Amino acid sequence: MFSWLANLFTSKPIRQSGRTLRLVRARYDAAAISDDNRRHWANADGLSANAANSPEVRRVLRNRARYEVANNSYARGIVLTLAHDVVGTGPRLQLHTTDLEASNRIEREFARWSQAVALAEKLRTMRMARAEDGEAFAILTSNPRLPTRVKLDLRLVEADQVTTPDLSPRWNAVDGIVFDEAGNPVEYHVLKQHPGDSRFGLASGVEYERLPAEAVIHWFRCDRPGQARGVPDIMPALPLFAQLRRFTLAVLAAAETAADFAGILYTDAPANGEADAAEPFEPIELEKRALLTMPGGWKMSQMEAEQPATTYAEFKREILNEIARCLNMPANVARADSSGYNYASGRLDHQTYFKAIRVEQSHLERVVLDTLLSAWLDEAALIPGLLPAGTGPIASWEHQWFWDGHEHVDPAKEATAQAARLASHTTTLAEEYARRGLDWEEQLRQRAKEIALIQELGISAPAPSAPAAHEEVRHGEEVADAA
Fold first, then answer.
1. What is the 3-state secondary structure (H, E, C) of 269-337?
2. If phi over 0 gives left and psi between -120 and 50 gives alpha, with beta otherwise, what is residue 284?
3. What is the distance between the alpha carbons of residues 377 and 388, in angstroms, rounded to a whole number?
4. In angstroms, what CA-CA distances link 209 with 172, 259, 297, 395?
5. In 3-state terms, what secondary structure has residue 254?
């Protein structure tokens, strides 16, 4: 009676070539069992996130990604561009406390500390490591040689060092990280030496440190629920980088082969026909700018330069576009070439990229910068006179991070749009200055000082001019072209 219901949840076994197969009933083409589908998804599995990202798999991916970035100019440029766009010259702190003077004082102290520990350089290195290794680790340490009163420092370690050589299946742990019952990391295991170091394991075997989670910053992108370790951001593009290099080398080899031969001596006469004898494959030295006589019955054919093929540039353009897609990077940024773009299409492609940059900066703030700031304030609170009194508990201080703004392609058009937004009250000065990575309060105070000095010196400031009409017309034409 209920056999039809059982058929919905069970699959019927069938016999084929001595094997028992399960017939899957599905309305989706992708779930249907066919030879083409089976071959296409032969490597698909049901592994968990941590089982799929096993230590050996991550080691192979890291090594290949590092090799590609080290030897492929496009890969190196893409990773560097990503680090420069995300981090830039480094973040700047703005505190929002009840005491403005106290906030400015703390911001200056934190800025001096950031410069002393080379925070911007380390953040760029962490972003590059996440692209190549899939994750970046930093250990909070004390550096007595810092010139600042706060001795907190940041020591970067590669993902290879965060591992547990004697990991037990009974532990609630993933390679290098121990978790509590709620899934929070409580301990990190860091090898005292890099596994790739020539002296690794020679002195005292494989030793590692057990560091509390509060002393370690782990930055990676979690792509699957339950994932504890990261894989390289450029992982989907690794086969494409290999194909790009193979195609380039093949085109170069074909061009060199064609260039090695100036011409070919051939005859239309049949075998044993009336033609002078000629040694096969015998090279003939040719003089430049000279007329030559061929042996009787023989002709000279010059090699045609057919490499690189006309599809070579198109292939490189398309494959670089596919490579950059996994990083949300537009093709003209990946190629560092916007020759085929107009103004409107360039701006349109950058919108997705800038949104991805803002998302990454927000993630970096939460995982790395807020942890650093909390540790810095905890140590600063122990130093007499460093933090102003009467500013309330540290936990209640609101703060904001400022990053480098993105330069506009046409500053005049951006200034016109900015003035229109301010006039229509659809934006604020704080938001407009934040787009450029600036603190609006500091900029207004600086501007007030400049205006006061201009008036004191009796200098007449030129009035701002309205944008020319032809500029607006040209911008409309560019938008129409892009559409």
1. CCCCCCCCCCCCCCCCCCCCCCCCCCCCCCEEEECCCCCCCCHHHHHHHHHHHHHHHCCCCCHHHHHCC
2. beta
3. 12
4. 18, 59, 83, 30
5. helix
Q: Is the N-terminal amide bond of 308 cis, ω within 30° of 0?
A: yes
Q: Which amino acid is at 50?
A: N
DSSP structure class, residue 235:
G
Locate tokens 């990190």: which residue?
188
- CA 265 – CA 31 distance, rounded (Å): 59
Rounded to whole angstroms, how far apart are CA atoms 342 and 46?
Answer: 45
Please choose, from the candidates 358, 443, 393, 366, the residue with its C-alpha nearest in 3D space to the C-alpha of residue 88.
358
Please name the amino acid found at residue 401.
W
What residue ranges in 185-252 does DSSP mark as E strands? 185-191, 208-212, 216-220
Helix, strand counts (H, E) of the chain: 16, 13
Distance (Å, whole) CA 353 – CA 321:
13
- Element at 134 (helix H, strand E): none
Q: pLDDT per residue over 421-447, tens digit each?
A: 888 888 888 777 777 777 777 788 888
What are the residues facing 182 on neighbouring strands?
A: none
CA–CA separation, 415 vs 402, rounded Å?
A: 21
Q: For residue 140, what are the β-bridge partners? A: 154
Residues 6+ apart with CB under 8 A from 316: 244, 247, 248
* Amino acid, res. 327: L
Which H helix or E strand runs over 345?
helix 343-364
| pLDDT, tens only, 306-355 | 666 778 888 999 999 999 999 999 998 999 888 877 777 777 888 889 99
Q: How many Cβ atoms are within 10 Å of 17's Cβ, its own excluded?
A: 5
Q: Please compute, for residue 163, the number of CA atoms within 13 A of its CA located in the half-sphere on the CB side.
A: 18
